[in-house]
Amino acid sequence: MGEQLRALMPALANKTYFNYGGQGPLPDPSLQAILSCWQSIQELGPFTTAVWPLVNATSTHLRERLGHWLGVAPARLAFTENVTSGCVLPLWGLPWQQGEALLLSDCEHPGVVAACQELARRHGLEVGQFRVSDLRGSPEHTERVLLERLEQALAKAREAGQARLTAVKAQASEMDKWPAVTVSRPQAMGLPRELMDAIMRTDARTLPAFTGVDLGVNGYAVVRIDAVKTPDIPAPIKAQWGPQLAQAVSAAESQLYYEQLKKRLEVQLKVPKP
């Protein structure tokens, strides 16, 4: 099948094709179909209303055949003027949020790279890059190399985050451009658990207070605490919660003491699997 298809492509008669997406050889039947369609358009008149039924019928037939080959509904297929447009249009249609990241290879077409850079500028995105050469070995080699790259990237992000934390401590107004958010345990506003834990543990006796949190693959968060508000809890509810809170605190202290004791005495509990 491969040799038969290759024989239909004049561009490959004396060349080797390395499947580069930027330039693709065209089979003779495809070229003849394009020429035939354009010939019909010229005969009907490019600016006459008689052309559009031909264009619509040709597009519909092609979409149906492609949908059958690809196993998708024809309505889910869209024709674009080139591959770059086919990549860029879906990118612009995604609901990007500030702080999200795009990961590109180091072999992307310049049109796609330019579109992603503009997306990053408009929506406040991060653009990362991985090396295609890292994917050429065995799956084990690829996994090892990618993990090494990830660790290096996380280390750089951690260092940058810590440097940013030092900078905002010296100049608190650096964070004024970011809107303030009021959070609490019941209403974390989408913040990850480790970030909320760090906020709640921060010594806020002197304001503004600052903290930094390493969020792993999600980056490094820098937080400025401007105010601490005590919730207005009705007296009956306070009276109801009082014993429960005291019991919870006592249980937490006991568990902490128990864990510290096990660590100090190097004790491990080995429970047989059920």
Name some characteristics of this structure.
274 residues, mainly alpha, 4 strands, 8 helices, two-stranded parallel sheet
What is this entry, summarized?
By secondary structure, this protein is mostly helical. Helix content is 51%, strand content 8%.
Structure in words:
By secondary structure, the chain is mainly alpha-helical. It has a domain at 2-84. The protein is 51% helix and 8% strand. It has 8 helices and 4 strands, in the order ααααβαβααββα. The strands form 2 sheets. A two-stranded parallel sheet has the order 1-2. Strands 3-4 form a two-stranded antiparallel ribbon. α5 (110-123) links the parallel β1 and β2. α2 packs antiparallel against α3 and α4 packs parallel to α5. The protein is elongated. It starts with a helix and ends in a 9-residue tail after the last helix. The model has no long low-confidence stretch (mean pLDDT 85).
